[in-house]
Specification:
Layout: H1 8-13, H2 20-27, E1 31-35, E2 50-54, H3 64-69, H4 76-86, E3 95-99, H5 103-115, E4 121-124, H6 132-153, H7 159-180, H8 192-204, H9 207-221, E5 232-238, H10 244-252, E6 255-262, H11 279-290, H12 300-313, E7 318-324, H13 328-343, E8 348-353, H14 360-373
Parallel strand pairs: 1-2, 1-3, 3-4, 5-6, 5-7, 7-8
Helix pairs in contact: 4-5, 6-11, 7-9, 8-10, 10-14
Length: 376
């Protein structure tokens, strides 16, 4: 497949936990705030001089220190974050915002508070259902976070300032969405690996500083021919995925990733936040609606239908459902989701993996067999 040379700029931004754009923003007096889950609203962490940075552990070699404090049946994402934290990788962050979404993340929070307490920390309590009462609850949760950030960092996280952050966020999301839509074409103008790099870079960089790179990538991408050759159009769904090589391996076997619905993916996270009414409520409503996570009760049918509709919209030939080993939420739902999609006539491959990519040969073999099973 073709590969746009400028994508190396995004590779550079993803090589370290805190990249050069983060360093530039800090030199300008701005404050990075780390977060660990898509239920933490980036827009709220963009108030005033603050900007959000999703925590990653790029290039991690092992979790020997974290293994001392966390069980061997804890997911390797949280253990990798603890390993990096104990090594000082996140010490320059102004703080960290967590969610109490699963026991694994709670153990990460507990250990950080005890072993390397952040300068500022807060845990959001996210409801397990959506609807009116849940929206009121989560709006109040965000207000408590906003008040706490205002007191600690001296920023305004409400009213006109927050409304401005929403407008900036929506404009940036439009730019990312325009790149993602290039995958709908036949042939697509970008690879899934390229889009994944742009998307992850948007989660770990100050968005205003990243925007010129995003716009340049889009401008040059629309001027080139379609990518190819490829054997099948693939959609990837599931949990946390910031490993760049995972998508690359799929595409090395001829499976072009044209759509995504995973925690760190684009859909439906790029939908706009409402710019009318109470900004906090608008952010709460967007956050509860943007992530199709198995932790949400009584929504399995909605999640399964959303994946089918997305696969159809992007003309995907099959779906790969991936999750990190020992993930409680996706580990339980993965089997049921796979069966439901197959019953609906959607070819599905279910993959369990570690946060640190280490079994490339096995992944290649399984993806190749999956593509061949679809007659591609």
């Amino acid at each position: 497949m073709n590969k746009y040379a400028g994508i190396s700029l995004f590779d550079d931004l993803l090589a370290e936990p805190l990249n050069r754009l983060v360093e530039q923003a800090m030199d300008e007096g701005r404050v990075p705030v780390g977060y660990t889950c898509s239920y933490v609203p980036e827009t709220l962490l963009s108030a005033g001089k603050l900007f959000p940075v999703r925590l990653r552990a790029p290039g991690i070699a092992g979790t020997e220190l974290a293994d001392t404090y966390m069980s061997n049946v804890i997911c390797s994402y949280t253990k990798s974050l603890l390993e990096f934290a104990l090594g000082g990788a996140y010490d320059r962050l102004g703080g960290v915002v967590f969610t109490a979404n699963c026991d694994h993340m709670r153990r990460l929070m507990d250990n950080l508070e005890y072993l390397r307490k952040p300068a500022f920390s807060h845990t959001l309590d996210v409801p397990h259902k959506r609807g009116g009462p849940a929206l009121e609850w989560f709006t109040e949760e965000l207000k408590m976070l906003a008040d706490k950030m205002s007191g600690h960092f001296g920023v305004s996280a409400s009213g006109a300032d927050l409304a401005a952050a929403i407008r900036s966020r929506n404009a940036f999301a439009d730019a990312i969405r325009a790149i993602g839509d290039l995958r709908k074409q036949e042939p697509p103008l970008i690879t899934g690996g390229e889009f994944h790099r742009v998307m992850i870079a948007s989660l770990v960089s100050p968005k205003d500083l990243l925007l010129p790179l995003v716009e340049d990538f889009h401008r040059k991408a629309v001027e080139r021919g379609g990518v190819g050759p490829y054997r099948a159009r693939i959609m990837v769904a599931g949990g946390e995925l910031d490993d760049l090589s995972f998508i690359d391996v799929i595409e090395s076997q001829g499976g072009l990733v044209v759509a995504d619905r995973f925690c760190t993916g684009s859909l439906p996270a790029l939908d706009p936040v409402s710019e009318t009414g109470d900004p906090l409520r608008a952010i709460a409503q967007h956050t509860l609606g943007k992530v199709l996570c198995p932790r949400m009760m009584e929504e399995f049918d909605e999640r399964e239908e959303a994946i089918r509709k997305t696969a159809h919209e992007y003309s995907a030939d099959g779906v790969i459902v991936q999750a990190i080993k020992f993930c409680d939420t996706w580990g339980v739902e993965g089997s049921t989701l796979t069966s439901a999609l197959r019953s609906a006539g959607v070819p599905v491959l279910r993959l369990e993996r570690e946060y640190r990519h280490g079994s490339e040969g096995q992944l290649r073999t399984r993806v190749q067999a999956f593509i061949e099973s679809m007659g591609k």
